[in-house]
Structures are given as structure tokens and as C-alpha cells.
Amino acid sequence: MEYIATFFTHSGAVNYKRYLARLGVHAELLPVPRRLSSDCGIAARFCTEQELANLITRGLHQLYVVEAGGEKLIYSADN
Fold first, then answer.
1. 74: Cβ–Cβ under 8 A, 6 or more apart, which residues?
2. Cβ(24)–Cβ(17) under 8 Å?
3. Which of 45, 47, 25, 27 is nearest to 36 (CA)?
4. Is the alpha carbon torsion for 29, 30, 36, 38 positive or negative?
5. What's the DSSP call for residue 25?
6. Nearest by Cα to 2 from 65, 61, 55, 75
């Protein structure tokens, strides 16, 4: 599955990319798409079959799964 993650801080985005690398998942850091919100403006896009629980870390703001019709919010630290 393809995901987009947003973060509270720039350092959170960098740490998340390193975390995914330790899981063997390649992630690309990019500006947050305008249709999504973020506190820091950086998102990570990646593909993985990891369990959702493995993708939730401290510093993660929101996690979206990319579907044919767009992105679907599947996790928010605000809730």
C-alpha cells in the first residue's frame, strides 16, 4: 500500500524516514500536498505492507493511505 505521512516538526519527518529505513522501507520526503494539512510542511511518501501499528510513531501527525480517489486519513494524533 502507498502512504503519505505528515509531521509536527521537520525533525519528526527526518526521524520517521530513518525509522522506515530501519524497517527496510524506502521513503521520500516532499512538501505536503496542499489538499492535506501539516504543521511543518514536510510529508513522507512510501509504499509498504507493514502492519499499521508499525507505522505509528511519536512525532507523526497524520497518516493517509493513497487510494484511486485520493488520500484517506487512517490515523491522526489529534484524536
1. 52, 63, 64, 65
2. no
3. 45
4. positive
5. -
6. 65
Give the global pTM.
Answer: 0.91
> What distances in angstroms separate CA 13 from CA 38, 48, 66, 68, 78, one per listed residue?
11, 17, 18, 25, 17
Cα 35 to Cα 41, 64, 70, 71: the distances in Å are 12, 12, 10, 9
State pLDDT tens for residues 10-62.
Answer: 999 999 999 999 999 999 999 988 888 756 789 999 999 999 999 999 999 99
| Strand, coil or helix: 51 | coil
Residue 16 main-chain phi, psi, to 5 deg: -65, -40
